[in-house]
Automatic annotation (TrEMBL):
Residues 128-416 form the Tr-type G domain. InterPro entries: EFG_II, EFG_III, EFG_III/V, EFG_V-like, EFTu-like_2, G_TR_CS, P-loop_NTPase, Ribosomal_Su5_D2-typ_SF. GTP binds at residues 137-144, 214-218, 268-271. GO terms for biological process: mitochondrial translational elongation. The keyword Ribonucleoprotein does not apply. Residues 93-120, 338-365 form a coiled coil. GO terms for cellular component: mitochondrion. Pathway: Protein biosynthesis; polypeptide chain elongation. The lineage of its organism: Eukaryota, Fungi, Dikarya, Ascomycota, Pezizomycotina. Residues 56-77 have a biased composition (Low complexity). It comes from the Eukaryota. This is Elongation factor G, mitochondrial. It is found in: Mitochondrion. The gene is MEF1. The keyword Protein biosynthesis applies.
């Protein structure tokens, strides 16, 4: 270990990236020469540190001084305010006003360091108390149950209700009837609450305002997680104490990394048989490749789980009273856990020393860090995306949720500690940093749309400036000016009207027609923000209303669903003239069909699910195609010469390039050739599915003085592509789904038989009583799998799946699919 630390210390640049805080000003003892901000695009960005107030009220000091004794920023603020003479206050406010004025004239004038240096104490205090977090995890890990306890312990709700509507009420965040019936979260739901905690250093009470979004765990509703993480500053990743890291945990991890979201990890269900928190910690380190260490150990396990030992302060924490409302803390650790607590605390310090230079220096000098220094290191490393602290408890058992809330406030960033970037269209879309200051020009992002009895409800994250009722905003995409007639804060399906919302907050507005991902400004800044990642659909089915009288309601519902959910798509098939809906899976489409029936009273006829195949080529093939047609008047003439080949650089993308010399094809027709290639790729020649991974190179051609046209060259390119595709070794690709199956060990043989018919086993993990099998299975073979699994495991098995990649279908399947497609085409022409 010591050799590793020395190597890290010698590499000062590498360690400084993890050591300094992600705050605009340091949140802890700061000997590093730079402060850190979590960048919402790209790596963590560095800015010069400033001697100013901390944006962090829960950790320690802000003034850069080597080996400063930790103290709370709240006490620092008190000290600063106490010594703030009226003339000094006036100078500070004047400086802030001048900086803001310069920024309004040219936004680039307000750098992050200027913003930090000129913020008023009131603005610092406001931002320091805000947390925007999400709850995300694998399905059935207990996300909604955890959220229900968070709302109860913060006083947001007066009674706890469980998922599946067991008490005829259901969890607060599952407001949709379908969610309560099925016991799953379908739509993300937003709420807000206030959490009061004691500052460990000063002993003073602190109040934090938490905006919270509960997200679905099922892969079919992954867009809800995408758009939540796009606008949040931090997250709590929940893991099952029995299963550890699961398939959807990996997906959530990938999404958090995509948007650079710092996270805590909470191991839930510690009271279940087979609970093993160390399995979860190991999985985070080895499978998710994130440095992780427990900051708690359990007092008892399974049915004997009582509480946790806090490894930072070395004290025991237990819940007492009705629903665990009261926390009982004690400096006495159960005797049988003392050695384990010391061991795990040392592991925590060593793990922090690997990612934080201050902790590494203390480790090398064999200094024992104080609790405040450990907390400061955890905060720096967490916000710097280098580390995740692991907590544990049981939400259903009402144990150890309050310490998790404390950790959210202690270790996750406030809005001033996250670098959110916009693109300045006046400077060729140069990246500019947004500053969460209320007096700045307004910039916000619409991240979720929802139909409401009062109209369209648009969820907005305010990144900069203040959003006020009655003001006008501009949609950066459409250029339209809109008025904001009503602003609300959401508490699941309940609304609370507010007059204005400040920078760093989340709200919802009525009366704004827009698309998910649109940027809004007050017109002063030509900014736009990047939207969220939207995955491709993997499954389709035909649908039509049973009664023709329901056509209008059907159309209205389809339009609404497409606006609300970017992964739900609709088109009319050119050949069959059927309405086709596409989505992320069988459950995804099933839910929308059921919502049609319940919310719009439209019963539908639904076809068999269709897999979204892809087509590609496997080798190069040349073409020389002449398109010539005479019809009495001006005819059509176009000749194209070139070749198609696999796109080795990107198997998912298509590429067109013209290398025509000597003007054999005029420029005005070359663009038509490119368009013809795009049309060909949109509907492949083998199945009519999208073509991927194909390159077309145009080398030569010929024209006619009167008969050549854009239309002729577009058609010539399409016909050349179609004829050459077979010679290029056309291949049908099918989607493979990463499938995770869990069941009691006695059913291993049965499940292996099921999987061998459908795909390839990737990994197997055998536990004491249960086992988990991971396989890549053909989506086409997975229809009805849930029924087969229930039969093979006596109802004790469960599975989940997500899209993995496209792979060539079996040769016999390719022939069957192409023959079926050919029959459908012939049947259409006969009609």
């Amino acid at each position: 270990m010591h050799n590793t630390r020395r190597a890290l210390l010698k590499s000062g640049n590498a360690l400084s990236a993890a050591s300094s805080t992600a705050a605009v000003a340091s949140a802890a003892t700061a000997s590093s020469p730079s402060a850190r901000l979590v960048s919402r695009r790209g790596a963590v960005a560095s800015i010069p540190s400033v001697r100013s107030f901390s944006l962090s009220s829960s950790a320690s000091p802000v003034l850069s001084s080597p080996r400063n004794t930790p103290s709370s920023s709240s006490s620092l603020l008190k000290s600063r305010r106490h010594n703030f003479s009226s003339s000094a206050r006036l100078r500070a406010l004047t400086a802030a006003q001048e900086a803001l004025k310069a920024a309004q004239e040219a936004a680039a004038n307000l750098t992050a360091e200027n913003a930090a240096a000129n913020m008023t104490p009131a603005e610092i205090k406001r931002l320091a108390s805000v947390r925007n977090i999400g709850i995300a995890a694998h399905i059935d890990s207990g996300k909604t149950t955890v959220t229900e306890r968070v709302l109860f312990y913060t006083g947001r709700i007066k009674a706890i209700h469980e998922v599946r509507g067991r008490d005829s009420v259901g969890a607060k965040m599952d407001s949709m009837e379908l969610e309560r019936e099925r016991g799953i979260t379908i739509q993300s739901a937003a709420t807000f609450c206030d959490w009061r905690k004691k500052n460990d250093i000063t002993g003073e009470d602190e109040t934090f305002h938490v905006n919270l979004i509960d997200t679905p765990g099922h892969i079919d509703f992954t867009i809800e997680v995408e758009r939540a993480l796009r606008v949040l500053d931090g997250a709590v990743m929940i893991l099952c104490a029995v299963s550890g890291v699961q398939s959807q945990t990996t997906t959530v991890d990938r999404q958090m990394k995509r948007y650079n979201v710092p996270r805590l990890s909470f191991v839930n269900k510690m009271d279940r048989m087979g609970a093993n928190p160390w399995k979860a910690v190991e999985g985070i380190n080895n499978k998710l490749k994130i440095a992780a260490a427990a900051i708690q150990i359990p007092i008892g396990t399974e049915k004997d789980f009582e509480g946790v030992v806090d490894l930072i302060n070395m004290r025991s924490i237990r819940n007492t009273g009705a629903r665990g409302l009261t926390l009982k803390t004690s400096d006495e650790i159960p005797e049988e856990l003392v050695e384990l607590a010391k061991e795990k605390r040392q592991e925590l310090i060593e793990k922090l020393a690997d990612v934080d230079d201050e902790m590494a220096e203390m480790f090398l000098e064999e200094q024992e860090p104080t609790p405040a220094q450990i907390k400061a290191a955890i905060r720096r490393a967490t916000i710097g995306l280098k580390f995740t602290p692991v907590l544990m408890g049981t939400a259903l058992g009402d144990k150890a949720i309050q310490p998790m809330l404390d950790a959210v406030c202690d270790f996750l960033p406030n809005p001033g500690e996250v670098q959110n970037l916009a693109l300045d269209r006046a400077q060729d879309e140069k990246e500019v940093q947004l500053v969460p200051y209320n007096s700045m020009p307004f910039v916000g992002l619409a991240f979720k749309l929802e139909e409401n009895p009062f109209g369209q409800l648009t969820y907005i994250r305010v990144y900069q400036g203040t959003l006020k009722k009655g003001t006008h905003l501009y949609n950066s995409r459409s250029g339209k000016k809109v008025r904001i007639p009503r602003i609300v804060r959401m508490h699941s399906n309940e609304m609370e009207d507010v007059a204005e919302v400040g920078a760093g907050e989340i709200c919802a507005v009525f009366g704004v027609e827009c698309a998910s991902g649109d940027t809004f400004t007050d017109g002063q800044l030509p900014y736009t923000m990047t939207s969220m990642f939207v995955p491709d659909a993997v499954m389709s089915l035909s649908i039509k209303p049973k009664r023709t009288s329901d056509a209008d309601a059907f159309s209205k519902a389809m339009n609404r669903f497409q606006r609300e959910d970017p992964t739900f798509r609709l088109h009319v098939d050119d050949e069959s003239e059927e309405t086709i809906i596409s989505g992320m899976g069988e459950l995804h489409l099933e839910i929308y069909v059921e919502r049609l029936r319940r919310e719009y009273k439209v019963d539908c006829e639904v076809g068999q699910p269709r897999v979204s195949y892809r087509e590609t080529i496997s080798r190069r093939a040349d073409f020389d195609y002449l398109f010539k047609r005479q019809s009495g008047g001006p005819g059509d003439f176009a000749r194209v010469v070139g070749y198609i080949e696999p796109n080795a650089d990107d198997p998912e993308a298509n590429y067109f390039e013209q290398r025509v010399m000597g003007g054999m094809i005029p420029d005005k027709f070359l663009s038509a050739c490119g368009k013809g290639f795009e049309i060909s790729c949109a509907k492949g020649p083998q199945l009519g599915h999208r073509v991927i991974g194909t390159t077309m190179i145009l080398l030569d051609g010929a024209t006619h003085v009167t008969d050549s046209s854009d239309h002729a060259f577009s058609l010539a390119t399409q016909m050349a592509f179609k004829q050459t595709f077979k010679d290029a070794g056309g291949v049908v690709l099918e989607p493979l789904m990463r499938t995770t199956i869990s069941a009691p060990n006695e059913f291993q043989g049965n499940i292996l038989m099921l999987i061998n018919k459908r795909g390839t086993v990737v990994d197997t993990e055998i536990g004491v009583e249960d086992f988990t099998l991971i396989a890549d299975c053909s989506l086409n073979s997975m229809f009805g799998f849930s029924t087969d699994l229930r039969a093979a495991t006596q109802g004790k098995g469960e599975f989940s799946m997500e899209f993995s990649h496209y792979s060539p279908a079996a040769p016999h399947m390719q022939k069957e699919l192409m023959a079926k497609h050919q029959k459908e085409v012939e049947a259409k022409w006969k009609k």
